[in-house]
């Protein structure tokens, strides 16, 4: 099975005085994908892990390539198995709040910030609604999804499960 990554970057809300504000006002960066798996949908930036690369290295590279942002603190918060007729993957999900740069459009993606409580779920993978709100709120999730004809046929999701929270180190895939 192919390893892939997703990054859910959270821009934490602050009040006018610079204090932390309600987390409901946080925003997350999604991309409208121009090509590849899930094109024409919104999804977190990410992509396939290259040989010899760790998932953490991959997620940093993919976010840089897709939207021009340098992610500083990706923490692994989820792991999902996806099966479909033409795409099987083990997807490593990261949450990050520290980054440098402003998102830019590239030939792969159009970036857009969304409030965490107002996601474009009807234009995202159907199963994102089963785990993404938990991850954006700082929780963890693990799941197994089987798609057929573009629709989810099997959905198994656990939330707030132990995930090896590899803030700095993880392992290269073969
Ligand atoms: C239900 O299935 C999926 N849900 C979500 N949220 N994300 C998914 C699903 N299946 C795949 N993905 C994501 C995981 C990766 O970020 C990408 C992988 O595809 P992509 O084609 O973008 O990979 P790249 O390496 O960027 O592509 P190139 O080969 O064109 O460089 O999709």
From TrEMBL:
Query: Can you provide one Gene Ontology molecular function annotated for this UniProt record?
Result: metal ion binding
Q: What is its main location?
A: cytoplasm
Q: Which GO terms describe its biological process?
A: DNA protection
Keywords in alphabetical order, please: Cytoplasm, Hydrolase, Magnesium, Metal-binding, RNA-binding
Question: Which EC class, in a word?
Answer: hydrolase
Q: Which reaction does it catalyse?
A: 2-oxo-ATP + H2O = 2-oxo-AMP + diphosphate + H(+); N(6)-methyl-ATP + H2O = N(6)-methyl-AMP + diphosphate + H(+); N(6)-methyl-dATP + H2O = N(6)-methyl-dAMP + diphosphate + H(+); 8-oxo-dGTP + H2O = 8-oxo-dGMP + diphosphate + H(+)
- Pfam families, per this entry? NUDIX
Q: Where is the Nudix hydrolase domain?
A: 1-137
Q: Cite the EC number.
A: 3.6.1.56
Name what cofactor the protein needs: Mg(2+)
Where is it localised? Cytoplasm
Cellular compartments per GO CC:
cytoplasm
Q: Can you tell which superkingdom this protein's organism belongs to?
A: Archaea
Its biological purpose is as follows: Oxidized purine nucleoside triphosphate hydrolase which is a prominent sanitizer of the oxidized nucleotide pool. Catalyzes the hydrolysis of 2-oxo-dATP (2-hydroxy-dATP) into 2-oxo-dAMP. Also has a significant hydrolase activity toward 2-oxo-ATP, 8-oxo-dGTP and 8-oxo-dATP. Through the hydrolysis of oxidized purine nucleoside triphosphates, prevents their incorporation into DNA and the subsequent transversions A:T to C:G and G:C to T:A. Also catalyzes the hydrolysis of methylated purine nucleoside triphosphate preventing their integration into DNA.
- Oligomeric form and interacting partners: Monomer.
Family membership noted in the UniProt record: Belongs to the Nudix hydrolase family.
Name by which UniProt lists this protein: Oxidized purine nucleoside triphosphate hydrolase
Look up and give the organism this protein is from: Halorarum halophilum
């Amino acid at each position: 099975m192919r390893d892939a990554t997703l990054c859910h970057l959270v821009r934490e809300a602050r009040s006018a005085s610079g204090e932390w504000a309600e987390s409901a006002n946080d925003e997350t960066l999604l991309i409208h994908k121009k090509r590849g798996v899930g094109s024409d949908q919104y999804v977190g930036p990410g992509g396939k892990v290259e040989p010899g690369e760790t998932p953490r290295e991959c997620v940093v590279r993919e976010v840089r390539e897709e939207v021009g942002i340098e992610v500083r603190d990706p923490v692994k918060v989820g792991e999902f198995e996806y099966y479909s007729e033409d795409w099987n993957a083990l997807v490593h999900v990261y949450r990050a709040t520290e980054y440098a740069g402003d998102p830019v459009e590239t030939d792969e993606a159009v970036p857009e910030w969304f409030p965490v409580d107002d996601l474009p779920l009807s234009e995202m993978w159907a199963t994102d609604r089963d785990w993404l709100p938990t991850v954006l709120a700082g929780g963890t999730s693990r799941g197994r999804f089987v798609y057929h004809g573009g629709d989810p046929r099997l959905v198994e999701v656990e939330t707030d499960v132990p995930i090896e929270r590899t803030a700095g180190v993880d392992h290269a895939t073969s």
